[in-house]
Amino acid sequence: PFVTEPLQVARLLIEATDGVSPVCLYNTVVIVLGIDPGTATTGFGVISSEGGRLRPIDTGVLLTQPTMALPDRLKSIYDDINTLLDRYQPDTVGTEKLFFHSNVTN
Asked: How many CB atoms neighbour CB 38 within 10 A?
């Protein structure tokens, strides 16, 4: 599932354990893919968590060309994210909430 907040990731992990002892959860390896969305540049990071320690696995950006039509850009991002999903097989995916701000001038 896609989540937007770190606490949601924690809640998903707790729900996924279905009553498993916290000691067992502590020793479980969890892979998380984080996505910073954008149509020109989409950032990503992959981390693992085991025994309370976080370890970076990979970071990068997915780029699209400004001359590409929006549907082509979205298809490119879709394909690249699916490649990341296949490569790292994350247990969960988090995405940053999009923030839109109007440029107001007086």
From this structure: 16
